[in-house]
Amino acid sequence: MRGSGEYCVVVNEQFRDGEAMTARDAELIELAGVAYVITDARGVITEANRPATELLGVSSTEVHGKPLGSFVADTDRAEFSRRLHELKPTRAPRKWRMWLVPRSRHPLMAELRVVRNRKGGDEAALEWTLADITEQTSAEAQLRILASELEDRVDERTEALREESARLAAVVENMPAALIIVGADGNAQLVNDRAIEILADRVEGDIREWEWEAYRPDGARYRADEYPLRRALDTGEVVGNERMEVVTADGLTKFIDVSAAPVRDANGLTIGALVLFRDVTAQEGQERAEREFVTNAAHQLQSPLSAIVSAIDVLQAGAKDKPERDVFLGHIERETNRLARLAQALLVLARVQTGVEAPRDEVVALAPLLTEVGASLRPAAGVDIEISCPDNLAVVTNRQLVEQALINVADNAAKYTRQGRISLSADTVEGAIEIVVADTGAGIPAEEQSQVFDRFYRGSSNGASGFGLGFAIVRSAVEAIEGDLELSSEEGSGTTVRIRLPHAASMISA
Predict the structure, then answer these.
(1) pLDDT, position 453
(2) What does the alpha-carbon distance between residue 287 and residue 281 come to, in Å, rounded to a whole number?
(3) What is the enclosing helix (H) or strand (E) of 315?
(4) Which pLDDT value is given to residue 455?
(5) What pLDDT is attached to residue 464?
(6) 145, 280, 381, 385: which has the fewest C-beta neighbours closer than 10 Å?
(7) How far is residue 378's CA from residue 288's CA, in Å, rounded to a whole number?
(8) Residue 68: Cβ-neighbour burial (10 angstroms; 0-12, 13-18, 19+)
């Protein structure tokens, strides 16, 4: 006797062939447990095996003469009628799913397979197999729901990762510090634009082959294995704010503060390293300038103080006659004034740059001011001082600031003029006041002219000395009184400085 699996094969083959069922076939189907129904062309049941009656919830006597469509759920009945009608012109097997409502059972999802008997005409019997697929359908629906939920979660996570990646990329590219991350093999995995800007093309390949020219603060050159990033990768060292002087690929020298750290996995193994560094070239230059300023200020203060102390010692030792006394008192007065001007210059610069005190305007007569500034100069022997200014010319401005600017410009002219003249003049130009200080001195090299107004800058030619504050104070003072400053110079032929101020005025004689 053949097993149930073999019966199913026989039924399926018979079903595919579309041949009429014999009594033997019906017996086989009955034993196989397949729900098998035969209807006429209108769908009225003429035969049904036991599995079919159990599926439909009726007895074998009750099922005969009933329309198969009466067991179809109301929601699917129109669809069943349409499909039944479509079977008339074709003998091809059909299969579809719909809800059935058995008489004594809960509704179930069934898969209907039907074929027209080949031995009849259009009115030939229809052979049906019915299969309860409720659990299968439920499982499929649940799988679809789970798949949909999983897909939604994957989409959400993907979008979250995309947003997180975009935020990270934005942070990396817009952070003020340069960033380089290397893998365990030493090759760069991430380099932001700031790192490329600072180091140019020196971030390619294995870091063990990078050939930076870099120096420590003490001037010692870094060896290849001493770079912070290399130490972090090879030894796991954490480096914090180490200052390096780096010669870039284009030959420029830059100062950078470097921090480096290893990147470790969950097991503590080093899988890479990262380095952060900032370009502190400007800061380093400022710090150096301020260190030089302290040194220069101490040196410059020493000279007038020494002269004052010496003069006082001589006076105390007995130089009390009027001629000698007047000479030493003159030294004391001159050096004291020099110290006062230096202190005033520093105070003016600080007040203007911090905005502690707004300048107070008044009417300033220019002819007396230029005369006073000219008289304070100590030019070299044979250098003439020329003053040119209309007697009634005046300007509404802050006297202290414009005087300080003129003194510094004129002192600079006296320092570098060994022959010829120094002229101080003022006049009206297009409704403004233009004050001009011109000399026939050494002049300023063209490459230095753009820097002479920078704080602490001291020219490299003609034995430049001093604090590097004179022209910086001039610029700050002129800016504070809303003026314009212009310098023109030719090396070996002298320098001209023009200060243009608004608010011209005229002095009225009584």
Answers:
(1) 65
(2) 10
(3) helix 281-317
(4) 57
(5) 47
(6) 381
(7) 32
(8) buried
Hey, what are 262's tokens?
A: 């290893």
CA of 414: how far to CAs of 99, 219, 300, 303, 385, in Å?
A: 111, 39, 18, 19, 9
Q: Which of 506, 497, 449 is nearest to 477 (CA)?
A: 497
Which residues lie across from 427 on neighbouring strands? 434
CB atoms within 10 A of CB 105: 13
pLDDT of residue 367: 92
The answer to whether 440 and 494 have CB atoms below 8 angstroms apart is yes
For residue 125, the model assigns a pLDDT of: 86
**4-132 and 285-354: same fold?**
no
491-494-499 Cα angle (round to 5): 120
**Given this model, what pLDDT does residue 321 score?**
65
Domain boundaries along the sequence of the chain: 4-132, 175-279, 285-354, 362-506
Write the DSSP string, 210-264: ---EEE-TTSPBPPGGGSHHHHHHHH---EEEEEEEEE-TTS-EEEEEEEEEEEE
Whole-number Å distance between alpha carbons of 78 and 446: 99
Residue type, 189: Q
Please give the class, per CATH, of domain 362-506: alpha beta
Counting as low any pLDDT under 50, the low residues of the chain are 1-20, 462-467, 510
| SS3 track for 369-391 | HHHHHHHHCCCCCCCEEEEECCC
Task: Classify domain 285-354 by CATH number.
Answer: 1.10.287.130
> What is the enclosing helix (H) or strand (E) of 123?
none
Q: Quick one: CATH architecture of 175-279?
A: 2-Layer Sandwich (3.30)
- Residue 466 and residue 40: Cα distance in Å, rounded? 121
On whether the CB atoms of residues 400 and 480 are closer than 8 A, the answer is no
Q: What is 4-132's CATH number?
A: 3.30.450.20
Please state, in angstroms and as integers, the Cα–Cα distance from residue 298 to each residue in 294, 341, 343, 360, 494, following that order.
6, 15, 13, 32, 30
State how beta strands 270-279 and 178-183 pair.
Answer: antiparallel
pLDDT value of residue 118:
64
Q: Determine contact, residues 129/15, Cβ cutoff 8 Å.
A: yes
